[in-house]
Write a structure and sequence with these properties.
single chain, Aldehyde Dehydrogenase, Chain A, domain 1, Aldehyde Dehydrogenase, Chain A, domain 2, 6-stranded mixed beta sheet, 5-stranded parallel beta sheet, globular
Length: about 350
């Protein structure tokens, strides 16, 4: 296939996501939620809409072609993909990058996200049957020329050993933070809540910690986040929330809570499900220095205001990365073109 044909196929795939309330899509969403109860219909639709809007439109795909000078002169390699499954279709960007650059990908699905990923890939093949040779679904990777693997900190060590003989990208746990100045409106804080609560906070781009100016009134967060109160009705979220409340009580750790969230002062960036950490600062210069010191742990930074020398995203947009925003800041397209 030519690069033009592959782009046209991806654009057509995006159009297939225009009517997610169709009986066919509803059946797929139901199967995905049965496979993984964290994948609610609303969250799946949110993920599909972001993929359609950010990745699968003509303008953005053509921008990628121009940026990376993609053409039909490429030596096809076999790329082993070990996909994550913490949020719906989180591995799609890697699959798209392989397809866009003309490589074949062997895909090992996460057992938490087989229904959706498989359905979307087969939909792409149905749109253009010439796409079929670009994909294979496997239980074990073999005979690959390079690998891209995503997992936890513990599995990352295993991946580095297992894929050490080929070029590779290994991703591990990262989390996102927000920086507040105290001047944010209630509406802006509600948008921040989207970054905290979307996908139940399970994504690496979800905000798990906020940096607050000393003396900040934390009740502002509780008031703004009330619009997300329905989240507590999800059984798995509530069970985790109740467990973490009990754990904090048993450990005699100070914390604040309402009916849907625990907020506690703590150093780690990673927070437990249903929890949000915070830390105070006195000057913005401290924040910038803190971020630089923790760069290896941070996926993205959410802020209303410009932070000197720091790339940020606006409130409510953490889970809507641009097509050329790459996990861990490692350029997947450039990696694939270098093989």
């Amino acid at each position: 296939m030519t690069i033009k044909e592959r782009v046209n196929s991806l654009v057509a795939l995006g159009r297939q996501m225009d009517d997610l309330m169709s009986p066919e899509w509803m059946t797929v969403l139901q199967k995905a939620e049965i496979e993984n109860p964290w994948f609610t219909k609303n969250n799946i639709i949110k993920a599909l809409n972001a993929i359609r809007d950010q990745y699968l439109n003509q303008k953005n795909l053509e921008r990628m072609i121009e940026k990376y000078h993609l053409d039909d002169h490429i030596v096809t390699k076999k790329i082993g993909l070990v996909l994550a499954g913490n949020i719906p279709l989180v591995g799609f960007h890697d699959v798209m990058c392989c397809y866009l650059t003309g490589h074949h990908c062997q895909i090992k699905y996460s057992d938490k996200d087989t229904v959706l990923m498989s359905y979307v890939i087969h939909m792409l093949v149905n749109i253009n049957p010439n796409s079929k040779p670009y994909f294979s679904e496997v239980q074990k990777l073999k005979d690959y020329d390079a690998a891209i693997a995503t997992g936890s900190n513990s599995t990352a060590t295993h991946f580095k050993y297992y894929f050490g003989h080929v070029p590779h990208i290994i991703r591990q746990n990262k989390n996102s933070i927000a920086v507040l100045t105290g001047d944010e409106t209630n509406y802006e804080l509600q948008n921040l809540g989207e970054d905290v609560f979307s996908f139940f906070g399970l994504g690496c781009r979800n905000v798990s910690k906020v940096l607050l100016p000393r003396g900040y009134d934390i009740s502002k967060l509780f008031v703004a986040f009330e619009v997300y109160a329905d989240i507590i009705h999800h059984n798995k979220y509530k069970n985790n929330y109740d467990y973490n409340v009990a754990l904090n009580l048993l450990n005699k750790e100070p914390f604040l809570q309402n009916d849907l969230l625990i907020i506690k002062e703590a150093s780690p960036i990673l927070s437990r499900i249903g929890s949000l950490h915070y830390e105070y600062y006195d000057e913005i210069s401290e924040v910038v220095e803190w971020i630089k010191n923790h760069a290896n742990e941070i996926q993205c930074i959410v802020s209303r205001d410009v932070l000197p020398g720091i790339d940020t995203v606006s409130f409510g947009n953490a889970q809507c990365p641009d097509i050329d925003t790459f996990a861990d800041g490692v350029d997947t397209i450039q990696f694939l073109l270098s093989l």
